[in-house]
Each structure stands twice: as structure tokens, then as C-alpha cells.
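Minutes, project check-in
Item: structure for the 179-residue chain
Input as provided by the requester:
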Amino acid sequence: MVRLGVVTDSHIPDRMRRLPQAALDRLAGVDAILHAGDVSTRGVLEALGQVAPVYAVGGNRDVMLGLPSRRVLEFEGVRVGLTHGHGGLWGYLREKLLYFTVGFYHERYLRQVRAQFDDVGVIVFGHSHRPVNQLLDGVLMFNPGSLGPDYRKPYGPAIGFLTIEGGTVSGEIVPLNPV
């Protein structure tokens, strides 16, 4: 069995000064931590690295960190796609244009993220700040929502966990108290 911690959209220091201790405490004991972008500062990865090995991708706020935009990892025979989900500069601008003209459409966004990977059992992503733990075309789509204090009500700060056992993946989203 493998237990993975999942963090996304930490937005440090623009939304909070440091990682919440509650998040670090809850992540203790995981086999690895996946950060799905908008890390914002290398100190976040260093702090998480004190808890467990960290695999991260860059989000729209991470240009200077030099992180890959996508990764495929494998745990216990299950391939895990990791992305922020914003689709790079042009994808980000396209989504912003659509957001301001027709509004946010959750299903469109999930399909865009899903299209980034073939042959994976789970896709971990962020960017939308909306929690997702659902199957789409046989793939678990997983986003715990933003770790940072969020401007999207009713969602608040959260982290997630993926448990992989016997080739099966399950996800859990854990809300944190506001910081």
C-alpha cells in the first residue's frame, strides 16, 4: 500500500506567509507528496520535503521555479498524471477569455485536464481551486482544492490523500481550518 499526500495552489507568500502547521501535521507519515502547482516559492517544496519526498509541477505562478508542466509517476503499478491543469500560457489565456465571456464550466475544464494524459489511472491537478474526486472515462480526477485561503466560497483550505493498494486508487479530501 502507498499513501500519497496531495497539495495544490499553496500561493505562498501572496495568500499566506507559510504552510499551515495543520497541513504539515496531517501529511506526516505519507510515502510521498504530490504538489500540483502554484507553489509560488521554493521554500514550500523544502518544507514539504522535510515530511516526505516531493514531486511537483509548475502552475501559472511558478515560471521562475523551473518545474515541469506535467509529470507521469508510477506507484504500485498505477500511473499517476500530475499537472496544474492551466495548459501553459496559451491555455491559461484561453481559459481566462472563456471565463469572462461564458463563465467557468467545470465539465469543460475537467475534459481539458483529462486530455493531457493517456494511459494513467489517476490525474492529480489544481488551478481551479475546486475540490474534485471523481471518475472521468475510467480515470480518477483528483484535486483537493486550494491549500491557501481561498476566495471561492464555500471552499476553504484543503489537502488530499491518495491510497493505492492492489492496483486500486482511492482519494480523500481533507478540509483544514482556515489559516
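Outcome recorded: The chain has a mean pLDDT of 90.
No further action items on this chain.
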